[in-house]
Amino acid sequence: MSLVQTLHFSKDANASEIMAHPDSFRLRYFQIFTLGQTCRDMLAFAGAKWEDTYPSDWMAEKTTTPFECLPILYIRKDNKELMISECTPIEHYLARQLGFLGKNQYEETLIMSFHSSSSSLLSTFGNFVVWNQPEVRDKCYNYFKQSLLTRWITNHEMHLVDNGSNGHYITLADIKTANVIEIFICQPDGNELAIQFQNSPALWKVYETVTKHPLLADWRSCESFKKLEQNTKLCYKDPRAYVRRPRVVAN
Amino acid sequence: MSLVQTLHFSKDANASEIMAHPDSFRLRYFQIFTLGQTCRDMLAFAGAKWEDTYPSDWMAEKTTTPFECLPILYIRKDNKELMISECTPIEHYLARQLGFLGKNQYEETLIMSFHSSSSSLLSTFGNFVVWNQPEVRDKCYNYFKQSLLTRWITNHEMHLVDNGSNGHYITLADIKTANVIEIFICQPDGNELAIQFQNSPALWKVYETVTKHPLLADWRSCESFKKLEQNTKLCYKDPRAYVRRPRVVAN
Fold first, then answer.
1. Is B136 within 8 Å of A132 when comparing Cβ atoms?
2. Which range of residues forms the domain containing residue A163?
3. Which residue in A194, B86, B170, B194 has a CA-CA distance of 20 to 30 Å to B164?
4. Are residues A124 and A178 in the same domain?
């Protein structure tokens, strides 16, 4: 297999051809939910041929990635492997490729708007709470729960009611929203947050529609998923744990 | 004109048709750079028919928007006006519509990757520095400058050198990157940051290529742009100022 360098983006003139007709995918992300789970769910749901891989020594690997961060997606076709980087473009590509992006431009834009709102909530949680200075983390978490999270729940509930409270159809937006809820349930006070989500029945229905879909429920029952969930639960207490500790490469 | 409700998304069956063949645009955002400037630059560069509008009383207007936040873009065609929400989907739509999204799927994905890296830097700055608890803001700003900003500069410089240090061609990624640099130059220590950017000549060339392009230089010389710049400079000291103070609607 002709491997592209990971640090630099490919200049292969056939890159778009590889993207349009891939044989298989290889995701590289840490062994937690956070920015990897929506790709994993789409790949699992679509029945794609894919591998879930984790860095064994992130500090050594970090400077070999385009922006010193993960996720990265490797797209394989014949004897070639193309690398793309950054969570939202990867999710947008997979959603388009695997059929989670709606039927027309307006639907795509609506899906990406909901996706953006849910992704932003998660990145605000990361920057303002999880990775904040230790002396203000709990204060920020309380503010986040009372203000930003509550507002997000109210707004999404309203739009889902507008859409007939039907648990939506499975799109990138639904999977991202379900993943974000799943991540919050892994946090301290996760049980209380779960009740808050359940009190918005249209929102909770999206969560249940995604996570109880037979293909995604099946993937949620496997050991590798449970390990991701377990690691995600440890993140609040020690956000650097999954970076600092060398871990076994899964694939 | 048949105005759609702003709070709820439209169910107009012709929404995609309006998006594909717009007559004009109306942007709604605060009177600062932050999440409005990339749209403004694309619209100015493309010579589109557009209006730049600001809320006069944001606290009253807030709950009439889909996610209680701005920007929102109104897309006008004939007697109809369609609303779309969230910064990245709006920028992606305008980039596609106005020709800033590359020639093929791989170029689009690369452009959106650079865009994502630059947007994330800005949102991290917002959540981790500007909107953080007062007692840790300066400490966080120092960490941000030494670590995250420096890493972003190094990585982008490398990719721009890969691309021939040509100041790139004008795409969504270039405009977003130039805007992010422009915003950092408005911060405390902005002069020092400017020198840091200048020391990465391929990156600085992108900034100069965008901001000195005749169409964008022209827009930068007008009074309304200068007011945006002035307000952006006040944000670090008092991030809530542009929300709290009622302001005159520009259009």
1. yes
2. 105-212
3. B194
4. yes
